[in-house]
Amino acid sequence: MIDFFEMKGVPFTREIAPHQLFDSSSYKEAAARLEYAVQNRQFCLLTGEAGMGKSTAVRGLVQQLDPVHYRYLYICDSGLTPKLFYREVLQCFGIQPAHRAPEAKRQYQALMLDIYENEKKIPVIILDEAHHFSESMLQELRFVLNFKEDSMSPLSLIIVGQQSLRNQLKIKHLEAIEQRIQMRYQMVALTEEETAAYIQHQLKAVETPHEIFSEEATQAIYQFSKGIPRKINSLCSLSLMDARLQGNKIVGRSHVERVMNEW
């Protein structure tokens, strides 16, 4: 397919280089808020439906973290428990976790303060798939952020999840967690104009020398995907394959509709 369309690589994959990520209005807003939260050691909530680009925004943030000023840890575990959380953080930063939970918590607190006060760096902890967290894990976030009698935080904690996480945190007994969130953002889908620009951006990233998707094909992709980047990627990849199999250099609406009918 790459040779057929004269591309230098495979478009519409998750493997695009961070500097080539598409700057949609939602992505730029998410990136700005994440950056601010990290710089100011805030508790940040990033949400959005599946495929909206949350992980992409996090990846962009991580690529910008200067190791001179930050130390970060990314955890993606839908079954994360408080015990596993402390163990993961301590092991990642080179400390053998204590067997007893209270001691592991004290190790964690000492570690975060040491990184901030002695190393002069900001610890950044990113927890993905947080909409799957148990109530006990969500409750534990209060203690994850509690330092010096709850008077300061040496770290930035970012929790990432689907929109349902926002509703979870509004439950009465989780109100104390919800109130601690200092920065939040809900990612939204691409507009029709952004969808067209996104498709062109992906093709440009692999140095495609000519137009491939017709205007009608792009419209059909937007209508079916509702502007969700992950769906756009799948539709475009399958439509390219369909056009290639039929020997067509241009992806038309018929190719997209054929893919949509098999979805």
From TrEMBL:
InterPro entries: AAA+_ATPase, AAA_22, ExeA_AAA_ATPase_DNA-bind, P-loop_NTPase. Residues 40-191 form the AAA+ ATPase domain. GO terms for molecular function: ATP hydrolysis activity. It holds the Pfam family AAA_22. CDD domains: AAA (cd00009). PANTHER family: GENERAL SECRETION PATHWAY PROTEIN A-RELATED, PHOSPHORIBULOKINASE _ URIDINE KINASE FAMILY. This is AAA family ATPase.
